[in-house]
Amino acid sequence: MQPVSNAAVLESLLPLEQVATRTWLEAQGFRRHSLDNLVKSRRLVLLTKGVYARPQLPVSWQGVVASLPRLMAPPVVVGGLTSLELQGFSHYVQMGQNQDVNLWAPTACPRWLERVFESLPQRLRWHTGKWLWKNQWPSKPELRDFPWQDRMTLQLSAPEQAWLELLSTVPEDVSLEHADQILQGLTALSPRKLTQLLGDCRSVKVKRLFFWLADRQQHAWRKSLDPRAFAMGNGKRVLVPGGKLDPTYLITVPAELLHEH
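Now predict its structure.
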């Protein structure tokens, strides 16, 4: 490939608010000294070692995430609570300065991405799916493209997958009460997609919690799902320390929610 250094070529390769690694830019034909010159001329900003952005607009977390498909081979998706928030399902939207950004992938987070997020107001929460999915990733991922501003598309977990991802973070990151409130709005989940995802799920906690909350809300899709079709494990699970044991799913939950069940 012929070396390139033209700023116009750079603009076509690197949209505003997004990032690129040195490795990727060199694969597009930029030589190391060309990148150094672009930084010196302020046509590129060095965000952290080996990671660049254009200077006209600040890098956003959405821009960083939109950059990942060209920089990483494995799928990286916006999942869990962040996905549900973007799709309008969260009662407590956290899209302000101090939100967590939940990303899911079947591999570990690259160090350069961690360093980029250290300079952003949002906190990166990276999930490998190791404890949620049998093979660290659903056999048939339920994903959707989410347009974000000009030339940006974020890949999100569809509501069915995002819901199970969220449940895996209860109660450490998301309270059971918050999860219960979010489920109130998830009235149109697909039983077919849920069946596939629950079959791929390895977490006993998530599957028991899924059905416990679904029984509370009694959406129409609940009637099409049979807990006996999924491996629910044996014995009790302490979900909420000091909570009360639900006799059906053998998980401890807040006493006030159990009384409403």
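Residues 1-5 have pLDDT under 50 and may be disordered.
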